[in-house]
């Protein structure tokens, strides 16, 4: 047996990102049973504390016992029945995952695709949705693979105009960028806990609008995935506390502490800190003659910075140098952007001016 | 915000059970990325160390990023296609879950049912399977809800005789009781980590026989659940390390340590310890005039003891007293056994003679 001795790294990645020390401490606390009243207190706190982070007054806020991808699958399995039309706006890796999952679930998937890194205007969304008239519309808020930020209302308004419900991947925005679920007309929003919430991966927060809950209740066929059936989860976490599965207690403790950290700082202050740090880093990047992959700052995620790999630079070598010289981990480009961009996260405990200095200096050194 | 301050309890439950202190320590170690070479070292160690615990030489050993129920769902979604016949042997709550999940997946489910607590003989299994000739056969090894242990070969032999693959829920046996996957002809075995492995919940180990892997590879339609697609998980954990989802790193650390503890003790020694402690507890129970729910010791799980609630005793009150007076948590009866049995786990760090004394004394005090 090899003893567990992980290298200590600065996770300037797209996620999992640096875990806050208080979160590690929370995970060391003794577990209770999954039907223990204390566990339900913890889960109630989490539900309450997630609301201001999502920007919602939805009574329905839960946590799926899986990672962000499990949240995506839960959303589709509960809100799109086989044969129903699902419209997906794709311009990146994670939007394409909606398409793949939707097809596997037997949805009739209609895609509006643009080159990776682009976003959709309200006119574009409206044209497409008026033509397709889908049952549900899915898209990504902050596309981790490209660094592009989609304006939520630009898609939710035309979606609601055709009577569709909106399913939004908020994996890279929750906890570090405003989502404003209610004001932006998002019916189903899901996320992860290892990015903006500074926890290790393992849970997927999800919130559902009252209108979408009505659709869920009206649904006749049971959710094809028992593990992800939101009606059963509702019975477990609320009301009767009817046993469903054995929730990952220690990861709930982690999320409880992660949310406490967010609320202690204040949601708005936290968003502002991430924006300020992003702008600080941006200045350093541009001053060094590097180019961002997303040209317009209004369309950029503040938590993950995507930078074009300069002509003639070996991206693999730069990442290796960062790791060897500075213990700094940054993220790799996916799919068609492999080797073409660096993806650099500035989140949670690493989103500070001192870390911008550390990271910028290291990056420029390793690019030389 | 309420600070996280969980009560300290002795988890003599059916799971989650007491977490070993070294496991909590492991979870406090710094995470690395989900594509970090160190993470794959950890996952390779886990795969290697799970083999002697499952009792298998299967190359295919993986871990699903969900709890034991996710392992059950993964098994059905990958090995039973819609319309195929799934035979399920049911005599308890978790066997019935196979039926429910199988139906949701569109399988043609055939049930052989006996009263809760009973098990199946080879003749009974053979009769049923010869009549039904299913594609797959599912059953529970150690039925957590009743305390009954099913002889594996009694079902796997007749299953293989009709060309079916065998899917076995080993949630309550892995790590504390012998399974002998290979010798017993189990094609797909899944489990959890919060019982015999003394970790907090959050992962589901699974192993698949070479014959079942062939069936998986021959499968034409993709697995309907993307998150649980074993082919994609294989590409992620082995070979190309192609990104799938973001594995729950800290829970992998927990499992790594949990398995190290099992192998340090020795698999056979650990099984023997659990058996000895079970027998010790049994003597105490019987000397006190209490009656086990499962009459024959050969058909009893050693890790969870199910005891009939004596005539006139209020089961809820006994559990409350145990908690109030001794901080001892025991498990509640499920479904048709609610209020009729106590379910008492003696696993991992709590499976010691001193804890048998503590628990027996407390139970008798609270029954008075």
- Overall strand count of chain A: 13
CATH class of the largest domain in chain A: Alpha Beta
Approximate shape of chain A: globular
Widest sheet, order of strands of chain A: 2-10-9-8-5-3-4
SSE series of chain A: EHHEHEHEHEEEHEEEHHHHEHEEH
The greatest inter-chain interface is formed by: A-B, 77 and 77 residues
How much is the radius of gyration of chain A in Å? Answer: 20 Å
CATH architecture of the largest domain in chain A: 3-Layer(aba) Sandwich
Reported for the largest beta sheet of chain A, the result is: 7 strands, mixed
CATH topology of the largest domain in chain A: Aspartate Aminotransferase, domain 2
Name of the CATH superfamily of the largest domain in chain A: Type I PLP-dependent aspartate aminotransferase-like (Major domain)
Low-confidence stretches of chain A: none
N-C termini distance of chain A? 41 Å
Estimate the mean pLDDT confidence of chain A: 97
Structural class, judged by helices and strands of chain A?
alpha/beta
Q: How large is the share of residues in beta strands of chain A? A: 5-15%
Characterise this structure:
- By secondary structure, chain A is α/β, with parallel strands linked by helices.
- Chain A has 2 domains: 10-14 and 266-367, Aspartate Aminotransferase, domain 1 (Alpha-Beta Complex), CATH 3.90.1150.10; 21-263, Aspartate Aminotransferase, domain 2 (3-Layer(aba) Sandwich), CATH 3.40.640.10.
- Chain A has 12 helices and 13 strands.
- Chain A has helices spanning 21-27, 37-54, 68-79, 93-104, 122-132, 152-161, 210-218, 230-237, 249-265, 267-287, 315-326, 353-367, and strands at 10-12, 60-64, 85-90, 108-113, 136-140, 142-143, 148-149, 165-169, 188-190, 204-208, 304-308, 328-330, 341-345.
- In chain A, strands 2-10-9-8-5-3-4 form a 7-stranded mixed β-sheet, with helices on both faces. A two-stranded parallel ribbon of chain A has the order 1-12.
- In chain A, a hairpin with a 4-residue loop joins strand 6 (142-143) and strand 7.
- In chain A, helix 11 (315-326) crosses helix 12.
- The first copy, chain A, is globular, with a radius of gyration of 20 Å.
- The model of chain A has no long low-confidence stretch (mean pLDDT 97).
- At the A-B interface, helix 1, helix 2, helix 3, helix 4 and helix 9 of A face helix 1, helix 2, helix 3, helix 4 and helix 9 of B.
């Amino acid at each position: 047996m090899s003893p567990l001795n992980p290298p200590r790294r600065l996770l300037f990645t797209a996620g999992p990102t640096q875990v806050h020390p208080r979160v590690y401490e929370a995970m060391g606390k003794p577990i209770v049973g999954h039907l223990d009243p204390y566990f339900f207190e913890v889960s109630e706190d989490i539900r309450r504390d997630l609301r201001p982070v999502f920007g919602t007054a939805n009574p329905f806020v839960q946590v799926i016992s899986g990672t962000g991808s499990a949240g995506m699958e839960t959303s589709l399995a509960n809100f799109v029945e086989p044969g129903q039309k699902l419209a997906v706006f794709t311009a990146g890796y994670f939007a394409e995952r909606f398409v793949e999952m939707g097809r596997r679930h037997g949805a009739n998937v209609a895609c509006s695709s643009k080159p990776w890194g682009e976003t959709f205007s309200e006119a574009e969304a409206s044209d497409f949705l008026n033509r397709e008239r889908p049952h549900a519309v899915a898209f990504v808020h902050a596309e981790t693979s490209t660094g592009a930020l989609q304006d939520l209302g630009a898609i939710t308004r035309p979606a609601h105009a055709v009577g569709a419900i909106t399913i939004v991947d908020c994996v890279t925005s929750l906890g570090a960028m405003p989502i404003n679920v209610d004001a932006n007309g998002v019916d189903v929003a899901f996320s992860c806990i290892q990015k903006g919430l500074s926890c290790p991966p393992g849970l997927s927060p999800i919130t559902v609008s009252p209108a979408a809950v009505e659709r869920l209740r009206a649904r006749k066929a049971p959710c094809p995935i028992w593990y992800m059936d939101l009606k059963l989860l509702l019975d477990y976490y609320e009301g009767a506390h009817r046993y469903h599965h054995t929730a990952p207690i220690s990861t709930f403790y982690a999320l409880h502490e992660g949310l406490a950290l967010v609320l202690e700082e204040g949601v708005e202050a936290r968003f502002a800190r991430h924006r300020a740090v992003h702008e600080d880093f941006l200045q350093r990047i541009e001053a060094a003659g590097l180019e961002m992959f997303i040209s317009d700052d209004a369309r950029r995620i503040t938590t993950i910075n995507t930078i074009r790999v300069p002509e003639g630079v070996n991206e693999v070598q730069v990442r290796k140098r960062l790791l060897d010289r500075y213990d700094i981990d940054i993220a790799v480009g996916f799919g068609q952007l492999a080797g073409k961009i660096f993806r650099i996260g500035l989140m949670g405990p690493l989103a500070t001016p001192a870390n911008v200095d550390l990271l910028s200096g290291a990056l420029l050194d390793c690019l030389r």
